[in-house]
Amino acid sequence: xxxxxxxxxxLFLLGMVFRNNLIAASAGTLLVIKLVNLPSALKILERxxxxxxxxxxxxxxxxxxxxxxxxxxxxxxxxxxPAGITAIVGGLLAAYLCGQxxxxxxxxxxxxxxLVIGTLLGVSFLKGFPVGPLAAAGLTALLLxxxxxxxxx
Length: 153
Description:
This protein is mostly helical. It has two domains: about 1-35, no CATH class; about 70-153, no CATH class. Helices cover about 80% and strands about 0% of the residues. It is built from seven helices and no strands. Helix 1 (about 5-15) packs antiparallel against helix 2, helix 5 crosses helix 7 (about 135-145) and helix 6 (about 110-125) crosses helix 7 (about 135-145). The longest helix is centred in the middle third of the chain and has 28 residues, at about 40-65. About 15% of the residues are buried.
C-alpha cells in the first residue's frame, strides 16, 4: 500500500471512529478514486474542489435570501446594531484569517494533517464543530506568527 492510500485509509478510519462524516466521506471518496486508478479525477479535484466547496458553502449561507427569510430591513439593521457591526468585523477578520490559511497551506501543505487531527479531537472532546481547514489553517498561521515559529514567505 502506498503512502497516499495509507494516509487516506487512516483519515477515513479516524473520521468513522470520531463520527466526523465529512472527513470520512472525503477520505473515502479520494481513496476510492485512488483505488480505481483515476488520476485525472484527482487532478480535477486538486484544481477545482476548493472553489466548489466554497460555492456550496455560499449557497447554504444565501438560501435564506432565496426563501425570503431575510429582507432589506434585516440587512439594514446589520449596519446600525452593535451585533450587526460586530458581525461585519468578525466576517472581515475571518476572511483575513482564512486568506492567511490559504497561504499557509500553500507554503506547508503537510500542516493539513495536524489540522485534521486537531479538528477531529476538537469535535470529539470539546464538542466543537468542524468549521473547515481554511479557518483552522488561518488560526494556525496566526499562532505560528505569534510564537515566532515561522510564517509563509
